[in-house]
Amino acid sequence: MAAGEHVHPYGADYGFLILLIPVLMAHPPILHVERVTKQFPRTDFPAVADVTLTLAQGELLGLLGPSGCGKTTLLRLIAGFEPLQSGQVALAGQIVAASGVWVAPERRSIGMVFQDFALFPHLTVAENIAFGLKQSNRKQQAQAQARIAEAIALVGLQGFEKRYPHELSGGQQQRVALARALAPRPALVLLDEPLSNLDVQVRLYLRQEIRDILKATGTSGVFVTHDQEEALAIADQVAVMRRGHVEQLGTPEDIYREPVSQFVAEFVTQANFLPTQRQGEFWQTEVGRFAADDRPLPGSSEELQPQSRTGVLMIRQEDLTIEPDEQGDIIVRDRQFLGREYCYCLRTVSGLELHARTSLVTAIPVGARVRLSAAGADLRFFPGIHEPSRIPMSSAAS
């Protein structure tokens, strides 16, 4: 964590927030996006295509996907920075964008937190937070000062009110940006990859702090990220986007455990994909055979037939067991020490690379021959031809 970062206790500072926490059943969804589409000029495909989703009051939604999938464009459509071509956007039951309807961004009761902080360098912390608060008369000035103090206490920056952005660490600057977004007490906060410019340690700390702050205030949020670990840690619901579409929407647990497509499985889970063929009650692969599971994919009416079928079998890294075997066909190409576990890179006879995560009990040397098993693993079958997406995992994402 950067020097000067301040960890504040949750306590009396949150007293003023009690009135902000709504009775959830008494309110309509804070956000409803219905069949929204947006295509930019001179492009072959829509940036956002027929997207529908709903966010309940007080929930956090993560928009997750690779660069160019449409997640930031969707965020800008919700904010009102981009006009939509079809569909509608409603905030707290009020339509703010639709055919013949347009509510300006500054009238949507939305707070924005940007990737680059977007702080005014010539303004102090307090002055940055005050920006956007009405102060045309004494009463409004007094209310603004109270909200500035509350927001500063909320993000743990008491004593930093008179500092300028260049006098703060990156993490502190992002807290100021969050405080500025929360000071007007918006109905919804939109966060566009707010942690991507920060060091790893600061990102890990702030992602939990941002969630804690939004939950403590009862503030709903939409969080854009390309980092699957970040999305799973922060969000109550995750929308995995691909080529403008929402490929899957669900809880972090559902997205991880029950991916509906190979794309979602590759992007969200740290998994291996083995070409396979159904033979009786087993899936036959080049590294062995595994008991077949006839469950249809979530959201699909397709059921697996008893006859042979070809596709790919998903085996998560943590479900793959490796054991030394001098007669084995699989070779340990590399071994990485990750602190709590080892990550093994394994090469099959065909040249396919697999990865396995194991405990530190036994260290298998590089170059050793091994055999694989996955007893009790939650295997997933995806029909079709295996086409690796080359999607980076979160540890490699920037």
Descriptive terms for the model:
398 residues; disordered N terminus; 8 helices; six-stranded mixed β-sheet; alpha+beta; five-stranded antiparallel β-sheet; 21 strands
Account of the 3D structure:
- The strands form 4 sheets. The chain has a 6-stranded mixed β-sheet, with helices on both faces. A 5-stranded antiparallel β-sheet has the order 2-1-4-5-6, covered by helices on one side. Strands 14-13-12-15-21 form a 5-stranded antiparallel β-sheet.
- The two termini are 18 Å apart.
- Strand 12 and strand 13 (282-285) form a beta hairpin.
- It is of the alpha+beta class and 398 residues long.
- The chain has helices spanning 71-79, 125-130, 138-154, 170-182, 200-217, 228-234, 252-257, 262-268, and strands at residues 31-38, 48-55, 60-64, 86-91, 94-98, 101-102, 110-113, 188-192, 220-225, 237-242, 245-250, 271-279, 282-285, 288-291, 310-316, 321-324, 330-337, 342-347, 353-358, 369-373, 380-383.
- Residues 1-25 and 388-398 have low confidence and may be disordered.
- Helix 3 (138-154) packs across helix 4.
- The chain has 8 helices and 21 strands.
Give the ordered list of helices and strands.
EEEHEEEEHHHEHEHEEHHEEEEEEEEEE
Helix content: 10-25%
What kind of oligomer do you see?
Answer: single chain
Tell me the strand percentage band. 25-35%
Q: Give the N-to-C terminal Cα separation.
A: 18 Å
Tell me how many strands there are.
21
What characteristic shape results from the CA principal axes? globular
Please state the CA-atom Rg, rounded to the nearest Å.
Answer: 24 Å
The largest pleated sheet is described as: 6 strands, mixed
- pLDDT averaged residue by residue: 86
Instruction: Pick out the low-confidence regions.
Output: 1-25, 388-398
